[in-house]
Every structure is written in C-alpha cells, then in structure tokens.
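Sat 14:20. Reprocessing the chain from the morning session after the first attempt stalled halfway. Input below, unchanged.
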Amino acid sequence: MTDHPEGGSCDLPEIAPLRTELAHRRFDRASFSWDGIPAQVYKRGDQGETGLGWRDVVRHTLAGGEALRFQLRYFEIGPGGFSSLEQHAHAHTIVVLRGRGRVVAGSTVFAVEPFDVVVIPPGSPHQFVTAGEEPFGFLCPVDAERDPPKAVARDVVERMLEDPVLRAALRLADPAARPR
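Finished this time. Tokens:
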C-alpha cells in the first residue's frame, strides 16, 4: 500500500449501519476479525498537510453510534505501517490486542505490546507505528460526537524531529518534512 495524505476517519460514513442493537459478533482468530464487521479505509480526502499521510491502516467499527454516544473501533496497522501524526481536542485511550508497536504521544515514545493501555491527553500530537513483522492492532473507544483530527503544525513537527528518540520513532509520509 502507498502513503496517503488523507483526512480524518471521524468523517467517514460506515459501510454497514452503526451497531447500536443487541448483537454478538464472533471473533475469528485466523483472520483476526469479527463476523459481519468489514475492514474500512482508515481515512480519505487529500489535505496535503505534513504528518497526515499514513500507510497500511484499516479500521473496524465494532459497536456504537450516536444512539449509544460512543464508538468502539479496532485499528490494525500492517508491518511497516503507521497512522497519521495528528492531534485533536478529545483524549484517546487505546488497548493493544495484537503485535508490537510504538506510540508517539507528545514528547514521549512508548513501546507497546498486547494488553498495554495508553492514554493520550487532548491536544497531544500522536502517532501509532508498527514495530515488527506482525500487524499492530488496538482498540480505541471514542465519543460518537468528537472533533476531527488536525495536522500538527509544521513548526511543532520540526521541534519533535530535533529529539533523536522522537525522530527515530516518527514516520512522515511527506519526505520533505523529514530531514535526512
């Protein structure tokens, strides 16, 4: 898959109706997916802003919608893949279910593995990066109504890249934004 300078996953329509009714979805260990819940594109649109590019990410909306006031989403990032570097006004909490990854949150990098929990405060620039040959997957519950992700300002990205630990962890699809 290629790099994608894309907009937010918050504005994407669901392929199937939002899951607000009583339901039971069986988990298939072989495909690491849930019965009747299709993989969806992570983001769409072309904002062309530094950091909003991504590689090899899909999302599954497991439950929720406005009637329940939340969504439970599962994101999976393939080997060599990464989410966009973004920020927004709502907090994020993730629970890792599969693989190993790195979570960049503000000025900190966390190495994570299954069943680790990471809380990312509102406004904190963040990115999820696969660290290994296995896909990196995590649950991410959010409010049904929330603000869309925003690109991290170029000057903030440049400051982040001055830190050798952050520079080694971050993945930016815009090659001009990542000095060599």
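DSSP finds two helices and 14 strands in the chain.
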